[in-house]
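Q: Predict the bound structure with magnesium ion.
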Amino acid sequence: MTMMTIPPRPALLDTPEQDMLIGGRRVPALSGKRFETRNPATGALLATVAEGGAEDVDRAVKAARAAFEGPWRRMKPVERQRILLRLADLVEAHYEELAMLDTLDLGAPYSRTIMGKARAGALLRYYAGQATLITGDTIDNSAPGDVLSHTLKEPIGVVAAINPWNGPIGMSVWKAAPVLASGCTLVMKPAEQTPLSALRFGDLCLEAGVPEGVINIVTGLGDAGAALSSHPDVDKIAFTGSTGVGQKILHAAAGSMKRVTVELGGKSPNIVFADADLDKAVPAAAMAVFANSGQICSAGTRLFVQSSIHDDFMARLAAFTQGIRVGDPLDPETQIGPVVSAVQMDKILAFIEGAHSEGARPVTGGRRMSGAGFDAGYFIEPTIFSHVGDEMTIAREEIFGPVLSAFAFDTVEEVLARANATDFGLGSGVWTRDLATAHRMARGIRAGSVWVNCYQMLDPGVPFGGYKMSGFGRESGPHHIEDYLETKAVWIKLD
Ligand code: NAP
Ligand code: MG
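A: Predicted complex:
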């Protein structure tokens, strides 16, 4: 591993009471309420954060509406582009601090959070390009007489982004970039477990020249998210989180007919054929689940291994997994930190207990870690079960923790059917050297991403999203910006 320097404690934490960002100003909640955010590796209090309620959401939506009606949406595309490019520079310049905030707030190792720097810069620059690529069409029509028809693209208005906790700064950037490119305005609610980097990001937006009120950050609990999703003056919701909350948001959004896109949970298959390059497939299969302590929506949690290599592969996978370094997120050698909270830890441990009682075969891991450096945090051993039945709970439900379920299979047809026998459809992996197998699997899997001989690749130019209960809408890619635009048809009679 390359040497890396752990940066100092972020300056933001010198202000132990963190307020929301509304209309360009940091303000406390109208109720005066605050909630705590803690470091899951140590339990230490990091800050108390303004607990936004419905009345704060209303203030933020009003600020976003006022900014939308102001000069912002009529700004030249090249000016919005310039702001996005400045923001890209600023986010990169301050990324050590942003990554450190996420490491402290979420528990992800600094060696991981700092890796988000390249992607954050690339996302903002990609959407900076998109700002100058918005086009309507001139469309020939067959109406009688001499009539022109064309379309105008207009920003949809006030967008609400509601975010999960598992990749905080990356998610803030991903949600804000299309808003800024399209000329919309934003009210963003970060998850209660990880509000800090979003607030720092909001400050950087102002520094980059984003006009006041264009980006608002309302910190708070689930009820702030609920207030946003039912607010009559929000035009669109971009939600990333659990399938259950996604369903609630769809209901709440129906009242005022908001546009909604939902990026939800997953139970993604990762499929290893006997002809695969196993030296690559073994570590990748482990890290497809264990990276970020398993708290990744598209984690490859259902590992299918072809029968002829199954036992050998599982032995190698167990050995690799036992060598993964779990521990202090601030140690540059650490690969995996704690899970985000006590609640999450208990949920994961209950799934593990259930797997034992349902008869899955434990291969490695399975316990909460204890001893010096572990007792105050929420550390769980990277855990593998083999001989998992397709109907067992750990084969079907998203665990969102470091737990892998392994299955043996024989044929392409069989594994396709079993891989698709899930409510979800977010990610998937295929390991083979055979071109025909790779293409057959890529066509046959019902999921938003198929990674062949790799896992978890993301790029600003390539769409990401779900099939089935993993949601709908695609973030990134050339068409994402359409979700932020209205299409208006204009007819002009010339005779
Ligand atoms: P979550 O419980 O669904 O929470 C997500 C966000 O929704 C949080 O900000 C939460 O606020 C808020 N919220 C809670 N109740 C709400 C309500 N009734 N109305 C509106 N908003 C509400 O998800 P999470 O536990 O933070 O994140 C883990 C989940 O996210 C997993 O299922 C994972 O698969 C999914 N995820 C999906 C993707 C993807 O791209 N598909 C990416 C990352 C994560 P609080 O923080 O206060 O609860
Ligand atoms: Mg926290």
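A: The radius of gyration is 23 Å.
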